[in-house]
């Protein structure tokens, strides 16, 4: 009998009791934790990854190990090879609901999170915080060199993608629009599509919200979320269910309840 499937999530370094500094790494770990599949985390750097970015995964099943890059394609691989159950199927989504989820996933990943990355790496005050949080454990001058290299790479990518050409006010407007869309979708029910159980879009949204709230390097969007009873409640229930070890995150969303 072959061993049960196992995933090694290759991503940026993280402490065991806090969300990943990478939104996409946290998204993938959320899917893995929800599915119950066996997995481990392993630190790496984007330049070592097959597509030059993290996460990627080494998936062992049926007597072989395959490497799959990109959180979206990793999740699809696991579902299509029957290594995990499809959360959309478990939630009983209709075809129309699945289409809406996929569109909103793209909105969160390609608009909101890109705007968040802009704030972390473009704005000098936030960049200092990012450097300390992500590279503070490295010896001098390695941490500073790595931070500078990644900042230059991020600037180039965001400028080429368009968002790097916007003003700070324009980028914050994009964040505000996304916040309002998220709050509207989660108002009145526990999950994106109702109250029964989370689907793919819930795991995706939670992964990015956990990542955003775990850092002090994107205060504009984080403060909006922390003032929202709806989104704090969603983050709290998902954290309690999937990542109870994230005690600082739970304290953060609980601590802001008194400000409602």
Question: Which helices and strands, and how do they pair?
Answer:
Blueprint: E1 6-11, H1 23-35, E2 38-43, E3 56-61, E4 64-69, H2 71-80, H3 87-90, H4 95-122, H5 124-135, H6 142-161, H7 168-186, H8 200-213, H9 219-226, H10 229-242, H11 247-255
Parallel strand pairs: 1-2
Antiparallel strand pairs: 1-3, 3-4
Helix pairs in contact: 1-2, 1-8, 4-5, 4-6, 4-7, 4-8, 5-6, 7-9, 10-11
How many helical stretches?
Answer: 11
Instruction: Report the order of strands and helices.
Output: EHEEEHHHHHHHHHH
CA-atom Rg in angstroms: 18 Å
Strand order of the largest sheet: 2-1-3-4
Silhouette: globular
What can be said about the biggest beta sheet? 4 strands, mixed
If you average the pLDDT, what whole number results?
A: 95
- Give the fraction of residues assigned to helices: 55-70%
Question: Which structural category fits the helices and strands?
Answer: alpha+beta
Give the strand content.
5-15%
Multimerization status: single chain
3D structure, described in words:
This protein is α+β, with helices and mostly antiparallel strands. The protein has helices spanning 23-35, 71-80, 87-90, 95-122, 124-135, 142-161, 168-186, 200-213, 219-226, 229-242, 247-255; strands spanning 6-11, 38-43, 56-61, 64-69. The chain has a four-stranded mixed sheet with strand order 2-1-3-4, covered by helices on one side. The longest helix is centred in the middle third of the chain and has 28 residues, at 95-122.
């Amino acid at each position: 009998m072959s061993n049960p499937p196992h995933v090694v999530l290759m991503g940026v370094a993280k402490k065991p009791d806090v969300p990943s500094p990478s939104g996409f790494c946290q998204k993938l770990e959320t899917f893995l934790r929800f599915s119950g599949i066996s997995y481990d985390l392993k630190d790496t750097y984007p330049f070592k990854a097959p597509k030059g970015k993290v996460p990627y995964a080494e998936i062992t099943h049926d007597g072989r190990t395959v490497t799959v890059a990109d959180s979206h394609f990793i999740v699809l691989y696991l579902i299509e090879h029957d290594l995990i159950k499809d959360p959309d199927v478990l939630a009983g989504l209709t075809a129309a609901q699945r289409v809406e989820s996929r569109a909103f996933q793209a909105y969160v990943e390609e608009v909101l999170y890109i705007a968040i990355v802009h704030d972390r790496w473009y704005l000098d005050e936030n960049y200092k915080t990012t450097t300390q949080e992500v590279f503070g454990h490295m010896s001098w001058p390695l941490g500073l060199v790595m931070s500078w290299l990644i900042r230059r790479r991020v600037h180039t990518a965001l400028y080429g993608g368009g968002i790097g050409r916007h003003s700070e006010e324009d980028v914050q407007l994009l964040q505000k629009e996304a916040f309002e869309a998220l709050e509207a979708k989660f108002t009145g029910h526990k999950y994106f599509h109702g109250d029964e159980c989370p689907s793919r879009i819930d795991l995706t949204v939670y992964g990015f919200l956990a990542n955003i709230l775990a850092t002090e390097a994107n205060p504009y969007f984080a403060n909006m979320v922390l003032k929202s009873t709806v989104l704090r409640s969603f983050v709290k229930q998902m954290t309690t269910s999937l990542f109870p070890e994230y005690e600082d995150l739970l304290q953060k969303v609980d601590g802001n309840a008194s400000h409602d």
